Amino acid sequence: MNPAPGDKGGEHIVWARRIELAAGKLAMLLAVALAATPVMAQDIAGLEDCAQAKGPDKKIGCLQSNVEFLHKLIKTSDTAAQAKLSAANLKISELQAQIERLKTALDQLEKKIPPAHATAPPAATPPATPPAAKP
Q1: Where are the alpha helices (DSSP H) in the chain?
Q2: With contact defined as beta carbons under 8 Å apart, do 2 and 10 qualify?
Q3: How many CB atoms neighbour CB 63 within 10 A?
Q4: For the whole model, what pTM was predicted?
Q5: Which region, left, alpha or beta, applies to residue 6 given φ > 0 means left and ψ of -120 to 50 means alpha?
């Protein structure tokens, strides 16, 4: 559908299409740039680089050493996490006990306070009247 002469709606469609194309080109450029960037492997302190070992026996030994190291690292991390979890559970138990003590104390205080309608004494004296003006 072609816009009628003098109709500005068609210009907006053309500009919107140009913006879409430019955004697509920019996205493609960024994707190519990111794909071309070399990715560095993350080193883990304590692991050996088994790619440098020569011979299958040395590579197998290197890999076994890495597996043992990672197993010890996981076990150490697990022990530390369990200790933190135990400490957190103990703290939760202490806080729950404290909440129960506070609830009990609040209940005792509420029993000591009389109901709100009984606290206000009835007005025994009538309100003061202003003195009458002398004629």
Answers
A1: 9-36, 56-112, 116-119
A2: yes
A3: 13
A4: 0.44
A5: left
Those residues with Cβ within 8 angstroms of residue 66's Cβ, 6 or more apart along the chain or in another chain: 47, 48, 50
The residue ranges of the chain whose pLDDT is under 50 are: 1
Provide the pLDDT for residue 45.
77
Tell me, what's the pLDDT at 14?
Answer: 76
pLDDT at 44: 73
Q: Which distant-in-sequence residues (6+ apart) come within 8 Å of 10 by Cβ?
A: 2, 3
Residue 62 contacts by C-beta under 8 Å, 6 or more apart in sequence?
A: 48, 50, 53
Would you say 63 and 50 are in contact if contact means Cβ atoms under 8 Å apart?
yes
Distance CA 42, CA 36 (A): 18
